[in-house]
Design a protein that fits this description.
single chain; Rossmann fold; 2 domains; 20 strands
Length: 569
């Protein structure tokens, strides 16, 4: 992106419920938060007039431990924002259930490669002036019931706009809503525009159109449970009758009679997008009558390229940090240097596995990694559904081992059961097919896994993978994917070149048994023989993963598309 292009943009404020900036800041749960952090980093690199609003989550998401039987246990993950962040002088407040709730903010500056920075504001209600119940609003990420979630979303959306105004930010031209969590910011923009109890329906409609011109919306999930819904009576109780009437008037009440926050965001956005080509199509089917574009996600190359490959790229691709498009020149890197860099990354990973688990994995085995949130649609247990067949694959194809990681939401009993099944399968398989499940998956561990894996596995139940970015991070390190054709992989997959598909095509219906057979067959007949018997052939796939997928699925390309389609006004 040209510097002049960035200078021509008017300021943008992105609102997100979670953000992953560093492992030591437990303000994220998974891909949505890490993507938000990558976006802030990319905006800083490109010099965009960008700021981010989120919640402080003083008690984090949770720390995970997994017992011998595979049972997940959770504990609080508290942190002190005053030790990590700078408190800003400005204050804001909102009214919830007739009580005034004061809000302060902590600032984190994301530094770019050329000296520009992007501020991230973490909103915090833990103030002595607040009622004890209200002090807890910004404690836990995705914690509590619908009542707590609605109050969190009010602090994020309404309180976030007011905090920006208190900071003197009257110049924001675009409010970017990441998921429906922040959609209530539209109510505050309506209030600013003059909406009142006495306004006629025609006046309100005109004001709503003005708000639409200020907002863009990105939907990140095709999973119905990912779209927050609140009973209209709860909206009225927490936010008041005027807010409830405005939301009903915006057409945001869904078939269940509840206010759907995705519909709120759709109603108040001048532009809406999904996060992959396929996800855009799925979103249009979910919300007919709305124009929904697609901008495929990317990752921040400088963050997710491991040290060994950073040094390799510095040698062969000068300038890749500023322009990841240059990674296409990886085609010139000698295969033996790619193998050497990956051997270093793999050793670092296997050493960390030993440190964490006490288990020594085989440095010569094909190391397959599955590291995702333990959500049912991601099917962590699919590959281990038939341990005997998996053992036979290893006997025929060659040594193979698996590393798993990922948290299940504390209230997701099905997700926890997936973890238990994987751990139990590992016990049954023993040393014939080693399986290690690592606890407390975070950004630091994620970086080691995406750099040190030999093969990245992804097996969601299509079409429920909106995009997925872990495979993109792996590609930055030359790690090919074995994946269901869903999300970004429909666009990144070139069979035998950047990796392999599990199923025949993205249009085919889901068939767990057939997809398991596809995985096992491809491992036995294609992937394991290539890895063990043709090192140059394997290194060619690694190199192509960098040159094709690394050079495209990065944050600079993603943000350029947002600038061209969504942010420029």
């Amino acid at each position: 992106m040209q510097a002049d292009s960035a200078k021509q943009l008017r300021p943008i404020a992105a609102f997100t419920m979670e953000i992953g900036l560093e492992s030591r800041l437990p303000t994220y749960s998974g891909g949505l938060g890490v993507l938000a952090g990558d976006t802030a980093k990319g905006a800083a690199d490109l010099g965009l007039p960008f700021s981010v609003v989120t919640l402080v989550h003083r008690k984090g998401y949770f720390q995970q431990s997994i017992g011998d039987e595979g049972l997940q246990e959770e504990s609080s993950d508290p942190w002190d924002p005053s030790a990590e962040l700078e408190e800003v002088d400005a204050r804001a407040h909102i009214d919830l259930e007739g009580r005034r709730v004061d809000i302060r903010a902590w600032r984190y500056e994301v530094a770019g490669v050329q000296g520009h920075s992007v501020p991230v504001y973490f909103l915090d209600t833990d103030l002595e002036t607040n009622h004890e119940e209200d002090r807890r609003i910004t404690d836990h990420l995705y914690g509590g019931d619908s009542h707590m979630r609605l109050r969190q979303e009010a602090v994020l959306g309404i309180g976030g706009v007011r905090l920006l105004r208190a900071l003197g930010r009257k110049d924001i031209a675009t409010f970017h809503m990441n998921e429906g969590h922040s959609a209530l910011l539209a109510l505050e923009l309506l209030r600013e525009a003059g909406a009142s109890r006495s306004a006629s329906s025609g006046e309100v409609q005109a004001l709503m159109e003005g708000v639409r011109q200020q907002c863009v919306f990105t939907t990140h999930t095709p999973v119905p449970a990912g779209h927050d819904r609140f009973p209209i009576d709860l909206i009225r109780k927490v936010l008041g009758s005027q807010a409830a009437n405005l939301l009903k008037g915006a057409g945001s009440v869904d078939e269940s009679g509840e206010v759907n926050m995705t519909r709120v965001a759709l109603a108040f956005a001048r532009y809406t997008n999904g996060v992959a080509l396929r996800h855009g199509q799925v979103s249009r089917e979910m919300f007919p009558g709305h124009t929904i574009d697609s901008i495929t996600n990317g990752v921040h190359a400088r963050t997710w390229t491991g040290p060994a490959f950073q040094r390799l790229f510095d040698k062969w691709i000068p300038g890749w940090r500023l322009s990841p498009y240059l990674m296409r020149h990886a085609v010139a890197i000698p295969l033996e240097e790619i193998r050497a860099a990956h051997a270093e990354a793999r050793k670092t990973l296997l050493d960390e596995v030993h440190r964490r688990s006490g288990r020594r994995l085989n440095p010569d085995a094909l190391t397959v990694v599955f590291a995702r949130r333990a959500a049912p649609y991601k099917r962590a247990d699919l590959l281990v559904a038939d341990p005997d067949r998996l053992r036979a694959v290893a006997q025929k194809g060659g040594a193979i081992q698996f590393i798993y990681a990922g948290k299940a939401h504390p209230r997701d009993s099905l997700g926890k059961e997936l973890i238990r099944r994987v751990v139990q399968a590992g016990k049954e398989l023993g040393d014939s097919v080693p399986i290690v499940y690592l606890e407390d998956y975070d950004m630091e561990l994620g970086g080691l896994l995406t750099a040190g894996a030999d093969l990245w596995l992804n097996q969601p139940r299509k079409p429920l993978e909106a995009s997925g970015t872990s495979g993109m991070k792996a590609a930055m390190n030359g790690v090919p994917c074995l994946s269901i054709q869903d999300g970004w992989w429909i666009e990144g997959h070139v069979e035998g070149v950047t990796g392999w598909s599990i199923d025949g095509a993205w249009q085919d219906p889901v068939d767990d048994a057939a997809e398991l057979t596809s995985i096992l067959t491809k491992l036995e007949r294609v992937i394991l023989p290539l890895f063990h018997r043709n090192p140059d052939g394997w290194a060619q796939v690694m190199r192509a993963s960098i040159a094709l997928n690394g050079a495209h699925f990065h944050m600079e390309r993603m943000l350029q598309e947002y600038v061209d389609r969504a942010f420029r006004v």
